[in-house]
Every structure is written in C-alpha cells, then in structure tokens.
Amino acid sequence: MEPQDIKIKIMAWFGLSRPPFHTVGVLPFLLGTFLAWKFDGTFNALIFFLGTSAVILIMLSTYHSGEYSDHMEDIISKRLFNNRFAGGSGVIPSGIISRQVPLWTSIITFVIAGIIGVVLQFFLETGSYTLLLGCLGALPGFFYSTRPVRLVERGVGEIFIGFCYGWLPVASAFYIQKGYIDPVINWMSVPIAMTIINVILLNEFPDYTADLSVGKNNMLVRLGKRDGGAAYILFSIIACVAMFLSIGAGVPVKVLYVYLPVLALSASLVWMVLKKKYENPQTLEILCGLNIVVNLGTTIAYIFAFI
C-alpha cells in the first residue's frame, strides 16, 4: 500500500472507532475510581488499567455494531445533513472499509472485554458482581443497534444508554476497587445519566428524517420533534434538580463552582430547543457539540467537588 493509502485507512479506523466519544464513558469511570481513592486511599493500578480497557472495548463494540446495523439510515442521514454528531462515522458508506468489518470487530472487542471481566473477578478478586456489572454494560451496548434485540427501535434504548453511561461506569469503577457501592454514587449518577440521554436524544434530531424513512422507532421518532424537544427540557430539569439533591446526599457544596457554568450552558441549550433552533442544520450541529460539553462538565464538576 502507498503511504497515502495507509493514512486513509488509519483515519478511517479512527473515524469508525470515535475516540473522542469514548470520553463520555471513560470520564465517569475515572470519577468512580477517584472516589474509591478519595474515601480511604484505595487504588489498584492494574485493576484500573484493565477496567478502563474493558470500558473502551465495550464502547468500541457498541459503536462498531451500530455502524454495521445502522448502515441504511446512516447513508440517508449523511446525504441530508452530514452532521458530525449523527449519522454514524460515514466510513462504511465511503467504501474504505467493508461493512462486514465492524460486525466482526464488535464481536471480537465484546469477547475480549468479557475475558478481562473474568480476570478481574476470578484472578484479581474484585468482587462477585464484577462480571454482572460488565454484562449490564456490554449486552445493552452490543444489542443497542444489533438485531434481533435492537434496543434503539424499542423506545427504551436511550434509557439504557443513560444507565450504561451514568450509574454503571461510576459504580463499577468504585466497586472493583472497593468491593461495594457507596450510596452517594446513586445520587451522583442521575445528572450524568440525564445529560447523556439528552446527548443521544439531541443527536437523533439530524437523523430524524432518515430514521423515520427506515422505520427506526427510537425515542424521537416515537415522540416527534415537538414532544422530543419537551422531553429534552424535562431531562435537563431533572439533571439540575438531581445535582442539588446530591449535595444534600453528601457531595461537597463546592461542586457548584464548576456546575453553575455548566448549568448556565444547559439553560441556554434548553432555551434554544424551546425556540426550535434545531430546525437549522448548522445551529443543530453546534447544539449537539455543546450538549456533550454539558455531560462532560457535569462529571468533571463531581470530580472537582472531591478534590
């Protein structure tokens, strides 16, 4: 292969795997690990490395299975809007990588993540619920787009995403270090979960026409844009209320130093959705990007609170 061809292949794999989007899973896992260390100094570097690797592999499995299963609607979506936050990576429609490749890589990464789970539970003795917690993330991730389960078409896929990117990574990271789950994590996970649900929901707006045309009955298709916008606003309100409730549950009040700017950004996005600014494709792409900032900022606020 020519150097230019190699570069194209590498960039295609980079796009297919979406490393920037791994932050929404890795950062909550870091939060859980940090809490375990902060509470009484517990930290095992090998467990952290293997756990983080498993999280990344599960996300790779999720993203690659989605590239394979959402092939048709991604083609339509990219043709209509070409939003960088929706419609897949665009690698498969380009023909640079065969469509069958992400199917096999999704299975391989799923299996490797499972092997890591076995090592953690039975060799590093991280707790009897380690594999269960891993399966709670890996199975909904793989079957989010994969038939015959295909959670994304059942109107509950977004809720599973909220669980898998909200409570699960924080609780799992804490558990494999400590062997139990502190109750404060249950409170902290709600704002993270609500904001990641909103990330998925808003990213469905550019895909709405494509998803509708192929019968992909996700939350937005079922609700329609108007009610989908109302759901977005509701989830934002729940996230805000839950953040303040988590302070009463044991989170240091200095979480607000970071969260208040995030809240201001979230409020501006709510206003934009209320005004239906999502009808403009260029504005919608900006909203999708800022929406991810709200999610990451919420997790960072919790990390800062315990420093």
Can you put this structure into words, describing what you see?
This protein has 307 residues and is mostly helical. It has one domain (3-305). It is built from 14 helices and no strands. α2 packs antiparallel against α3 (45-69) and α10 packs antiparallel against α14.
DSSP summary: helix tally: 14
- Helix fraction, binned, reads over 70%
Alpha carbon gyration radius = 19 Å
Largest sheet: none
| End-to-end C-alpha gap | 50 Å
Task: Tally the structural domains.
Answer: 1
Bulk shape: globular
Unreliable spans: none
Mean pLDDT: 91
Q: Give the SSE string.
A: HHHHHHHHHHHHHH
Q: How would you classify the helix and strand content by structural class? A: mainly alpha
By DSSP, the count of extended strands is 0
Summarize the structure.
By secondary structure, this protein is an all-alpha fold.
Question: Can you tag this structure with a few keywords?
Answer:
single chain, 307 residues, mainly alpha, 0% strand
Secondary structure blueprint with pairings:
Blueprint: H1 3-17, H2 23-40, H3 45-69, H4 71-80, H5 91-94, H6 100-123, H7 130-142, H8 157-165, H9 167-178, H10 183-203, H11 208-213, H12 219-248, H13 255-274, H14 281-305
